[in-house]
What does this fold into?
Amino acid sequence: MKQTAYSFPVIGIIHSCFKEKFGIPRQPGLAPLAKAQLELLSPYNDPAAVEGLEKVSHLWVQFVFHANEWGGWKPKVRPPRLGGNQSVGVFATRSPNRPSPIGLSVVKLDSIEAQHGKVILHLSGVDLLDGTPVLDIKPYVPYVDQVSEAVNLIAADAPNTIDVVVPEYLQGICTEYQLRTEIPPFAIDYTNFATRPQACLPRT
Amino acid sequence: MKQTAYSFPVIGIIHSCFKEKFGIPRQPGLAPLAKAQLELLSPYNDPAAVEGLEKVSHLWVQFVFHANEWGGWKPKVRPPRLGGNQSVGVFATRSPNRPSPIGLSVVKLDSIEAQHGKVILHLSGVDLLDGTPVLDIKPYVPYVDQVSEAVNLIAADAPNTIDVVVPEYLQGICTEYQLRTEIPPFAIDYTNFATRPQACLPRT
It folds into this structure.
C-alpha cells in the first residue's frame, strides 16, 4: 500500500505588511517594495542552516495557503487573471484552492539577521500574507529556474498597472485601515499609486 | 497554539527512466531528453483539472524526496556541487536532506494524455526518481518565475559535461543494468555520451 499523504513541519513564519488577503499582489515580484520577514522557528532557527545564503539573491518560499477558509478544491477554477468568468483546470493555475495547498513564491532576499537566538530573513517583492506558515526555503538557481524558452499562454505577461491619483481625504481612510489592521503607519507614495500597492513600508 | 505541521495528499506518481538514485541529474533540464510520466491518482485524475495546461510549456513539480532513507536533516550539508568536502547551510542548497523534504523541479510538458480514466502528463528534462510521490503541479509563469537579475554564487552555472567514449563491450554492462533495473531497452547515443546521461529513451 502506497503512502497517500505526507506531513511536513512548519520551519518558519512570515511577518508581512499584508494583514488581509485583500490587496495582496497576485504573484511575487509585482510589488517589488512589499516587504516581509521570514522568521525561522525552533529547532530550524540555527544560524548554520542559512550559511551561504548571503551568496544568493533570490529564494523560493514554499508555504501553506493557511487562510483558505474553504480548504477544499474543485477540478476547475475561475482565476481573477481571466476576469473571474472563465474557468480553467486547477493544475493550469496557481490558485490557492488546490488539493495540496502549497504555495510557491520567488522573493528577493535583502538581508539575513542571525542574532539573539533568532534567524530572520528580510524579503522583498512578496505576495505573502502575515502569519503564513513556511514549509521550506530553497535558493533560486538561475541556470535551472530561468527557463528562457518557457511559454504560458494563460498568463503571458504581468498584469497592467493603472495610475491612480488618490485625493488627500482618502488618506484618512487609509489611516483608519492601518489602525484597524494594526499595520504600523505607512509611507505610501500617493504620487505613484496603482491598483496594486507599489509599497507598504513602515514610515522611517 | 500554532499548527506545527501540515499534511498533504499525494496527487500523482512519477513513472521515470531513473530507477535508482544513482545517475539522476542533479537538477532538472540537465538531461533534456530524460523522460517521465506523471500519472494523476484518483480522485485527482479528473481531465477537467488539467484543462488549459496545453497552453503551458513547462511545469513546476512539487514532490516528496521519498527515497531519502535517513529522513533526517542537519543544519549543514556537503553538496556534490561543491565537491562534497565543503559544507554549507542546508537552506542555501537544494539538498534532499532538509526539514521538509519537498522537492521542486521545473520540467517540460510534452503532452497530456487523458483517456480511459487516466490522466498522464508526459514530461521531459526530469531529475525525478521512479515512484516519486507528487504533491502538486503548477504552471511555469515566465513573467514571474524567470528572475533575470537573480544571482547564485554557490551554483552559478550548469555543471560541465565531459565527452566520454564508451567502448562497445561496455554496452553489455549497460544492457545488464537495464535488465536488472527493469528499464525497457535503451537507445543511448554513445557517440555523444557524457558523465550524466543525455537520454534514456525506450528504443522505438
User: Anything to note?
Assistant: Residues 160-204 of chain B form one domain. Chain B has a mean pLDDT of 84.
